[in-house]
Amino acid sequence: MNSSYAQKKADLRSVLTVYGRKSVLEALTDEMLSCQTLHMADSNRKGGIIADIEQRAAARGVPVRLHTRDALSRISRNGKQDQGVALDIACPAFAALDQGWLQARLVGSKAPLTLLAMDGVTNPQNVGMIIRSAAAAGVDGIIYPDKGLAALGPLVIKASVGTVFRAPLLRCERLLPALRLCQAQGIEVSYLDGNADNSIFEQAGAGHRVYVLGGETHGVSAEIRELADTALSIPMAGGVESLNVAVSAALVAYASQRR
Amino acid sequence: MNSSYAQKKADLRSVLTVYGRKSVLEALTDEMLSCQTLHMADSNRKGGIIADIEQRAAARGVPVRLHTRDALSRISRNGKQDQGVALDIACPAFAALDQGWLQARLVGSKAPLTLLAMDGVTNPQNVGMIIRSAAAAGVDGIIYPDKGLAALGPLVIKASVGTVFRAPLLRCERLLPALRLCQAQGIEVSYLDGNADNSIFEQAGAGHRVYVLGGETHGVSAEIRELADTALSIPMAGGVESLNVAVSAALVAYASQRR
């Protein structure tokens, strides 16, 4: 029973449910996406964009399930904005961040493992840009906690220019225990800090490492600074005191892959 | 007469005029800025924020000049949004991009000269972020044409988090002749193109070079592709097809300084 529950939970981690009529229609139109199930509220009026959605789903052979309005809200997790429509998209690059995943990757990897984490980045525009850049750089995983980060919803998806569906998101509940888990597997935890002595350009890519980027307002939280093994900086000239967090993430992600 | 006119024009190039009551008050409050002259419309009603602006200017010894509403519009170049207030800020790192500047810098430089240019980047948010990142990386100049780029105004200043006042902006009228001038001085012109064979990480920093970044919608224009000596790409993994232009600019700027 337990292992089947764990399996189901792991499966849920690799599904992203999008909602809203326009977002769902767009996703159904993207041939690169693996659409699993279309969920519709039985209260939806027929015709218009609802008819377009149904036609597109039928053409692609995507099964449709009807729900009460309440049940649909629980599926979309956003009853206020789902407009009675939700779509499950399979994201095979997603994984639940747990000991099993880490061990499998560490055994199999020839190059140093590079993970990226965000601590309190609440602007979905930045989160989406970070996912896009990190995926482009080829990092092994982007830790995505359910709490303390912009929700994995339409704004993040839009800002990622759709790259989120193919990005290696490592999903977990909260960041701190996830970082402890990484540390226990011998992965160094480093956070970015403009005042740190060591530069990412000297240190990046030297060993298994998770890079933690702090939020726009408060930076990296005290408890994560406490936990971390090292602090790293991006050198700045010209009297500039800080960089945009999405820019920092891109520099870190590419630096980690350049050794 | 001619040389005095040229001198005056060059001086104007190293002044940035901000406008709007809140922006002007903010600038007057920033001790790092060299505020030259406060311009006020004689129609401004006294008191409130106008009184704050006058007090702050007096405390810093910034001279005040009164103008008719029309004359003030010509100074701010934005009569609709200046709210009767404009402030000249001296930006000593600004220069007019001409043969003299290029020759002086090429003679004096031990390291390869790195310039950054934007072609048709119309989103002020991106332009501001690019200036901030390029200044932080320590590039030698950011070419800023009067035409074909988001106006050097409040939105760009805000997105740059104020770094624009200290950034090495090379001002000119249009980008194409400016690039020809660079080329005539032996500076290689390279544009960024996702499909180019050569990676910036292999090539950057190898010689004097100006990197041209294309706009959000159309990329680098045909006439600049034609003119350019080389095309360079940022390698992308994970099926990602492009990067945000501000992210690309940061990667290019830092790569150029890492040799």
Automatic annotation (TrEMBL), chains A, B:
GO CC annotation, single: cytosol
| GO annotation terms (biological process) | methylation; RNA processing
Q: Which Pfam families match?
A: SpoU_methylase, SpoU_sub_bind
The residue ranges of the RNA 2-O ribose methyltransferase substrate binding domain are 17-95
Q: Please spell out the taxonomic lineage of the organism that makes this protein.
A: Bacteria, Pseudomonadati, Pseudomonadota, Gammaproteobacteria, Cellvibrionales
Q: Which UniProt keywords apply?
A: Methyltransferase, Transferase
Gene of origin? Answer: yjfH
UniProt protein name: RNA methyltransferase
Recorded hits in Gene3D superfamilies, A to Z, give: 3.30.1330.30, 3.40.1280.10
Where on the tree of life does the source sit, at the highest rank? Bacteria
